[in-house]
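Moderator note: this is an archived Q&A kept for reference. The question asked for a predicted structure of one protein chain; the sequence and the answer are reproduced below.
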Amino acid sequence: MKILLSFTLICLSTALNAFETEFHSNYWPSHITTIDEILDPITSEKLLSKKQRGVLIRLVEGKLLVDFGRGGVHLVDIKDTDFVKEYQDVINQVTPKLYGNLTGMIGTRLTTFYKEHQRFHFDEMKKIKNMIILITPSDNSMTSEDLSKLTEAFSTIDKGILDNEMILFPGTNALYQAAKEIQSGLKFIMPGVNFAYQKALNLPYDNSNQKFYHLFKLDLNGKLLSSNVDIENIDELVTQLELIL
């Protein structure tokens, strides 16, 4: 019995190490559940309850970044969750995965202002491989002219590739009006939820430093492929956009 238990633990340890280094985002489960109560590493107070379910955002340095709703967004160890089982269930198609994790998170919250106010269906996101998320300045420094320049630049750069989708997270609601005026074809996170989803995605940038542009490339499961923060102006932004596409 002890030999079998030791063998099981060794296999689990080997699997966890493999997942941390070579884990493929295509098989990330959409949700995970804690196995036991999780304590705050600093205060030792209860951080998460046993069998608390959360939305998997992404893998970060061998840990899981999970949104537990009212319980908050936390980094948790793989071993403290049912991640391994859920991952295998996706591979074995026990749990069908119809859409990427990031697609499922924001797919129904996208809109554009090209010709008319439009919303999108999940199936439209199947045509692309990556999402380019842009968080714009919150000081109203991005003008209608800047937005026009960005819209044209992205269309030109991505032409012939067509596997990227650019999504703006406006730092100010005034940018939605500018998008409506110029009928921008870029996709926007919907008004009213932009700041909440920006926080939920937990992208690595200084939230207090919002006079800059912050650019991120993620796959449809939310895996962070590249990032460029603290971009000062629209010309530098276009240059950085060319580099990541």
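Archived answer notes: The radius of gyration is 20 Å.
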